[in-house]
Amino acid sequence: MATIGIHYVANALYGAQRQGLDTDKLLQDAGIPPAWLGIPQARVRETQLTKLIQAIWLQLDDEFMGFTQQRSKYGTFALMVDLVHRCDTLHGLLSEGCRFYNTITEELTMTLGEESDADGDWVYLDIVFEHQQALDEKCFYLEFWLVIWHRFACWYIGHPIPLHKTTLTYSPSDYEDEFNLLFRCQYEANTSHNRLYFNRKYLSERLIRNRAEIKQFLQRSPMDLMTIPGQDSSVTSKINNHLRQLPFHEWPTFDAIAKQLHTSPQTLRRKLRAEGTHFQTLKDNLRRDTAIEKLLKEKLTVDEIAEHVGFTEGRSFTRAFQKWTGLSPSAYRTQDKNDPQN
After folding, report:
1. Mean pLDDT: which of 92-106, 233-247, 271-285, 290-304 is highest?
2. Is pLDDT of 48 > 60?
3. What pLDDT score does 81 carry?
4. Which residues, 6+ apart, have CB-to-CB distance to 95 below 8 Å?
5. Domain with CATH 1.10.10.60 in the chain
6. Among 54, 107, 247, 254, which has the highest number of CB atoms less than 10 A from its own CB?
7. Is residue 326 very low, low, confident or very high in pLDDT (cuts 50, 70, 90)?
8. C-alpha to C-alpha distances, 119 to 83, 288, 289, nearest whole angstrom
9. Which band of pLDDT confidence, cut at 50, 70 and 90, is reported for residue 228?
10. 52 contacts 9 by C-beta, under 8 angstroms
């Protein structure tokens, strides 16, 4: 994702707040205006959320970010990476990763299991946090942990692992669009397990990362865990890549893009639903993130940016941008200029 909803920023702070950290200072140091917490549509960049999470890790000396009773000291994940680097395949990585955390802490239980149904043979990663309901009531850290392990597995084999589905013990309906951007699969809410499912064939994939790559990965963490590494083969990515190559006023209709992807509109619509999104959502998100990037990195007027992202006049763009982010384009640019990190 180019930008991340303020929902995740607000929830990332709960554990730190319970531990007595100054959350306003954490936000300011990460370049996130504290006032944005009161704007439900506000969005931050990956670099800003990365700075925030890194600061919480370091100041609490806790990679569980205050969402558990006992800390996971800073450096624990790196120690686990050193252990699983000795494995040859993804099966070894996930098995040893589960064994590592199940051994060193009673705060969570990780299980690697297998299931088969009429659609295929699946592997699932099951996560249970012992005190989730009391300490992670918004399920921020649970989702963060699921994302970490999916992206970590993708990164280590060098290409995406499409998720078959996600099962959850709660419902993310209040922020469903943002959830779908993270997981890109259908989810089942209010089940008895928190699990990620993917095709069993990926377990035999070879691990390809070397020590130098691992060192850089750990230094940047969790930056590289917020995106899907490698050549993303999802339908969402294919459409996004196609649209990025065209001026906004030349974007094709849904039927035209289905034809260009050599599929029927019905099949394409079904595949997008399976990834938790819709064609209009993809277009809106791409317009929004392109507009934010140009606002912050290029010295263009609001009208020039409006034209670039396919609006015929600036007022329509301003209304859309405010709906997307909760701020006018000029206010968004001003807030970023006031960021001491810039």
Report:
1. 92-106
2. yes
3. 96
4. 87, 112
5. 235-337
6. 107
7. confident
8. 34, 36, 36
9. low
10. yes
Tokens read off for 200: 């069993």
Of 54, 100, 110, the C-alpha closest to 226 is: 54
What pTM was estimated for this model as a whole?
A: 0.78
Classify residue 342 as exposed, middle or buried by CB count within 10 Å of its CB (0-12, 13-18, 19+).
Answer: exposed
Q: Are 21 and 53 in contact (CB under 8 A)?
A: no
Report the share of the chain in percent with pLDDT over 90: 59
Highest mean pLDDT among 95-99, 284-288, 324-328 belongs to: 95-99
- Give residue 100's region: left, alpha or beta (phi > 0; psi -120 to 50): alpha
Architecture of domain 235-337 in CATH?
Answer: Orthogonal Bundle (1.10)
